[in-house]
Specification:
Two copies of one chain form a homodimer. The first copy, chain A, is of the alpha/beta class and 354 residues long. The first copy, chain A, is 38% helix and 21% strand. Chain A has two domains: 205 residues, 3-Layer(aba) Sandwich (Isopropylmalate Dehydrogenase); 130 residues, Isopropylmalate Dehydrogenase (3-Layer(aba) Sandwich). The interface between A and B is large, with 62 and 60 residues. The complex binds 3-isopropylmalic acid (IPM) (2 copies). The site of one 3-isopropylmalic acid has 3 residues of chain A, from loops. Chains A, B: Belongs to the isocitrate and isopropylmalate dehydrogenases family.
């Protein structure tokens, strides 16, 4: 079968790292006999917004809703367009309307990447953060009362549904079960947030019964962030709500020194809709246009996309190539102490793929 | 004037570190001519709960509400009594009923304490986390619908009032203004939590106008946790909501290796009610009864209490004594690679006070 991929470079360095992502995907596809077709789209970007007054065409769902996956660069340019317009008009729209209820990110210490943590070596840190991606703290229910007076207040609801919580927990338990350590950690804060968080705990206990082979534990988010720094080797699969997962999936990559190279998947596991694969870094207006952006996050996201499509070998060949590339100082980009530019680094990974 | 301090050791190691805290407070009081009287209370503990079926006597407010401050050990013994009974029945009750709307914690890299971060030395990291302590995400507004069905859901509201947000921001800006760097950082997540968090941002902008001498910036909580690990030297005063402050004030001490020795104040700045000073560590049932607990968190909390009472010199003399004690391996407790027990470490600090 031929996979059809929607390619959306978006803004800023998204446009610069995308060609390298595609280069590596093509190299891996060729080596592993995978057939891929790329369709390019210019929406979900500041340029598009400037011309059309909206982030995406009215028929965006028809345009990209039937693709096997969406390969996404970066969106947002705060100086030109407010975040809530650009992000809620594209990225968060995808998550909700394509029911991408899993946000998945690896936390992995890679060779050649200086970790801010003392005495940690590649292999020591290797886990996944599984984040609920559609509800929880990111609800739009709430409002303001008594505006502009001393009595003013705002409220916003966190919403956890049985459907929403159970399906993300099922995904996380299944992932844990597929890994050698079979260990799941759940993040809550039930001693302070006394209604929603105990509900999540309750559903974890119920789900755990269906996965007797998985060892599980839970931590309050405050001490869990501390343990990411103090004991990153404790973790295997960590699952949390929309907000807690968001925090942990930035903190985790930071602990491995890799925020600039971390990949992510916004996944609809049932494949009723396409999933989105994108680097964790944003559009980075400050370095855009210079050709120095690190393309590894984009490339690694491509590897996750191949794995999601079922092309495990091709996906793994990309991750291996990334590791070999990062191990060579001269092939790394400037942010990692190397002297390669975006293209040179992308070409190096493509050459390493086997 | 003579200060009247309510002393509540609470549970577990709270009872073991309290005598050392008092020893050092007495030593500092003597050297600096401060007059203190201590009243001891056995409530807010598992022992009390076992006898009386509640955490505190009905007239707890009369008993301790007129003291100048409350010196608190630790509460909680999850195996015996659920957290929501012990914590909401004491600690969180104090915060709300004594209007302790500031939770204040130092993040400071101390000599002799191994930091999990590579290449950081004492002096590199030295900032305060200021946490809103009465409202925000820890509201009790919410509930469950359609229980035990597939349609089940729970909601919980975050509540931010103008009064609540403005007063914590004012405290944080004043603290920033009193420090050499005069720098304030605000934690929000306005690109995801789109009602309450933008309101906090709005109030920061309004408050900043009253403090033209203070430089300020803001970060989304996800990247802010990353920056605690990557750039802890960037911060001076960091202010956040009840939840975000909770997270940052565990993560910060973890980055400096000091969760076991970190102090905290639950402060009512207007002094209409007593403030509570307590170590960040809990009752630690696993090591309780062995006499090996590290008393530094308790002692340092005493220093914060003296500063709050206006006895700056006495407070500073304690912090200096802590630094000198920690610098000596033999005077540190086991958790910091030393061989002193709780009492020996406490006596060492008391001797160092000058
Ligand atoms: C015990 C718990 C309710 C408390 C909190 O979250 O406020 C603790 O973590 C703290 O930071 O004092
Ligand atoms: C851009 C923002 C809304 C988003 C989020 O918080 O979900 C981002 O931080 C992420 O993690 O993908």
């Amino acid at each position: 079968k031929q996979y059809r991929i929607a390619v959306i470079p978006g803004d800023g360095i998204g446009k610069e790292v995308m060609p390298e992502g595609l280069r590596v995907l093509e190299a891996a596809a060729k080596k592993h006999g995978v057939s891929v077709h790329f369709d390019h789209f210019d929406f979900s970007s500041w340029d598009y917004y400037e011309k059309h007054g909206q982030m995406m065409p009215d028929d965006w769902k028809e345009k990209i809703g039937k693709h096997d996956a969406i390969y996404f660069g970066a969106v947002g340019w705060p100086a030109k367009i407010p975040d809530h317009v650009s992000l809620w008009g594209s990225l968060i729209k995808f998550r909700r309307e394509f029911d991408q209820y899993v946000n998945l990110r690896p936390v992995r210490l890679m060779p050649g990447v200086p970790s801010p943590l003392a005495n940690r070596k590649p292999g020591d840190i290797d886990f996944w953060v599984v984040r609920e991606n559609t509800e929880g703290e990111y609800s739009s229910v709430g409002g303001r009362m008594f505006p502009d007076t001393d009595r003013e207040f705002v409220t916003q609801q966190t919403v956890m549904t049985r459907t929403g919580v159970d399906r993300i927990l099922k995904f996380a338990f299944e992932l844990a079960q597929s890994r050698p350590k079979k260990h799941l950690t759940s993040a809550t804060k039930s001693n302070g947030i006394s209604i929603t968080m105990p509900y999540w705990d309750e559903r974890v206990e119920a789900m755990a019964k269906k996965f007797p082979g998985v060892k599980w534990d839970k931590y309050h988010i405050d001490i869990l962030t501390a343990n990411f720094v103090l004991h990153p080797d404790w973790f295997d699969v960590v699952v949390g709500s929309n907000l807690f997962g968001d925090i942990l999936s930035d903190l985790g990559p930071a602990c491995t020194g890799t925020i600039g190279i971390a990949p992510s998947g916004n996944i609809n596991p049932e494949r009723n809709f396409p999933s989105v694969f994108e680097p964790v870094h944003g559009s980075a207006p400050d370095i855009a246009g210079q050709g120095i952006a690190n393309p590894i996050g984009m490339i690694w996201s491509g590897a996750m996309m191949f794995e999601h499509l079922g092309e495990k070998e091709a996906g793994k060949s990309i991750v291996d190539a990334i590791e070999r590339t990062l191990a060579e100082r001269t092939l790394r980009t400037k942010d990692l102490g190397g002297n390669a530019d975006t293209t040179a680094c992308g070409k190096a990974v493509a050459d390493m793929v086997d």
